[in-house]
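Example 3.
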Amino acid sequence: MIPFPILHQVIMYEMGWSKVTEKPNVLEMKNIVKNFPGVQALKNAELTVRDGEIHALMGENGAGKSTLMKCLIGIHPQTSGEIYFNGNLIENYSTADTLKMGISMIHQELNPVENRPIMENIWLGREPKNRFGLVDHQKMYEMSKEVLEIIDLKEDPRTEMRHLTVAKMQMIEIAKAISYNAKLIIMDEPTSALTSREVDQLFGIMRKLKENGKSIIYISHKLDEIFAIADRVTVLRDGEYVGTEETENLTVEKMINMMVGRDVTDLFPKVTCEIGDVKLEVKNLTGEKLFSNVSFDVRKGEILGVAGLVGAGRTEVIEAIFGIRSKTEGEVWIDGQQVEINSSEDAIRNGMALLTEDRRMNGIFPMLNVLQNMSISNMKKYVGKFNLVNHNDMKEDCTRYIDALSVRTPSMYQRIENLSGGNQQKVLVARWLLTEPEILFLDEPTRGIDVGAKAEIHKLITNLAGQGKTIVMISSELPEVMGMSDRIMVMHEGRVTGIIDNRKDLTQAEIMRYATGAMDEKTA
Amino acid sequence: MAKETSDQTLTSNDQSRDKKQIAIEILKKYGIVFVLILMVIGISFLSPRFLTPNNIFNVLTQSAIFGIMALGMTLIITSKGIDLSVGSVLALTGVVAASLGQTAMANNKYFEGLAEMPLIVPVIAALALGAFLGSINGGLIAYTGIPPFIATLGMMTVARGFALIYTGGSPISNLTSSFTSLGGNIGVFPIPVIIYAVAVAITWVLLNNTRFGKNVYAIGGNVKAAEVSGVNVKKNLIMIYAYGGMLAGVAAIVFAGRVGSVHPGAATGYELTAIAATTIGGTSHAGGIGTIWGAVVGALVLGVLRNGLTLLGVDAYWQQIVEGMIIIVAVIIDMRKNAKKK
Ligand SMILES: Nc1ncnc2c1ncn2[C@@H]1O[C@H](COP(=O)(O)OP(=O)(O)OP(=O)(O)O)[C@@H](O)[C@H]1O
Ligand SMILES: [Mg+2]
């Protein structure tokens, strides 16, 4: 095969260009500064995207990636700096204008209108009209079908959004962005809720878009994805431009170094620790439609990884154990005794903690500050004399964890909604760590977290296991599951298809066979 | 929309169970309709006078005024707002309309020497003034960011004050015969009921079949989603409250036509009845959920209740207590319907 740049030159030559020039730039952002009250989110950011290229934007949590994109699409106009789109300086525009210009964005924080159908979510603000000026539902339905076909999602466009899983909502967001038929599509961590199969599918779509001359700005913390899909990479650090490189000239080490400014050595600091008695036992847990006959046990000091495709029912099982989802059958035993858990209160009383998968909907209190968000589940500990809250202890703990997890926030009094996505996640992790639970359920604990902090969180999880805690960790990132777990439970369509001992020679392919239902211990 | 998404292919084994589930779903979704039917059956059992055509139209006529306001309120509450000012707006638009709709020879003529105006003049005046007052509500909410509760609380007091100033505190009466004929019938149908029906139809189309309607749901359901999708939230908010105000103007016309005069203290507390009807009809104060049929059924539940209890000779004070309890029960049922836990 001819390497792409050469092929490119050949084509240009054939087309009669006398001088081989680089492809024109669809977007140039220069010297972008963005100040928020008390925070300088962008100091001197830069980004240049060529026509028909997939351009990765990288950086740690809080580096300013999302903010830079929000400047571009007019949500937070920049304090200073210039933006050229298609060679023209663009100024004073609204989000509606950028959509018209041909820029659409998939936001990091999902934005579904939950009680409305999929099709109204996709066409919100530009519903097709009939000749009476009324919304043409039939046409909207058909148009939605078409878009959903592109992303290969078999879901009735009339289904209300709230019935979908997070992953499917994410796919809808992608469908929506594509439906704008934009010249430039921004994807802010679109894959954080997707599993490998869906990611592959998304990449297929992205390549197709690229062939059709669209440009894509792609933000992700998953390095392998960047190498798989991006043509070039721009790195930001602390709101400043670090550099832009062709992906083929980069290595993982180099990229991490550009992002973090130092080397990160051990991403999975798993130390085998002593494994004790059985702590948690789940027997024949069955819930309406979503999962059936789930049985497993976890021991003290053990990390049980839970793998599976999105929709396999992993989250649902954990929610049922935690008492926030109803179950029709099944028993939960702790320390050899059956327990009745019907609410999160019961669960917490039994020493359980749950880090939820979807922080927007179940996790954060957007209007409250970091301190309040972090301490909310641990109030019992801070209640002292006369039942009053001891704020000093609370602040001490908070400061300690802000430090330990390097949460990037101007202070503990910042509203959590003003933190970057990854930093919000860290606050939530801290919330549950503070309760010192005996059994810790982690649902996608490192979603949206940068490499450096990921290593931190992994270290914390391992340390907890070392202290004899029991850990159940759902993750859609196979390297994470394989790097961290003692055993791996794989689910497929609501059933456990296998519980595998983690070994050195375990391959991703083997897990995938269980996850896709191709291999099933129970039937084999 | 009658489009349902629950039709999946079922194995014969699951069928009976799923049928039961579908039945439960329907019961949950249309529970309030069953409540209305039960009430009608129960009351007609106890009082034979209840189900006479005459009395039925009576109930509808009595429900029309707050029913019309509940339509606008449905849009407003669905957008995650509230409008406490519609009762006062009814009074202010009502007195202005009445002052433009007096007979030439009226005693206490408001505009001395003003000839008898065609009906269209007071009607347009009431609707335009209502829409204007509503748009001030919407503008305050959209541009200053103050909560709808506060903005409309202010408007409630201000509009009432203007109504009192405008009239000097006394009612405006002696309306033209064309005006008071609005309280009459066309054939067997009372005109207030016809106006109500037209308002229902228009609002139904507005909410379900226009972009504006979709925006109402989106703004209430997730205002950020609306913004990033290019919806002009501010403009839409103004339109939503303007529409609510305009419907208060329509209600004012019906009121004036039926009563034959408008007092500046008229319709005190009507905003709460409208909110109650909307709420009973299943519109969620958390935003993003609301239907016009619900608003109609909610208004009818209140109308039937009031009429029925009166027919049964229940003391007016007790009526209030029953009404209050119904509202709370309706919301409890509604919360279960939308509960997340599956
Ligand atoms: N509305 C806001 N008000 C105040 N500070 C803000 C606001 N939005 C972002 N910030 C701050 O700007 C910085 C950059 O945030 P941004 O969301 O752009 O990071 P990011 O690179 O997207 O990180 P992540 O990978 O975690 O998503 C952070 O320190 C954040 O706290
Ligand atoms: Mg971000």
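Chain A has three domains: 23-260, 273-351+438-524, 366-436. Residues A 65-66, 108, 188, 420-421 surround magnesium ion (ligand 2) (CB under 6 Å).
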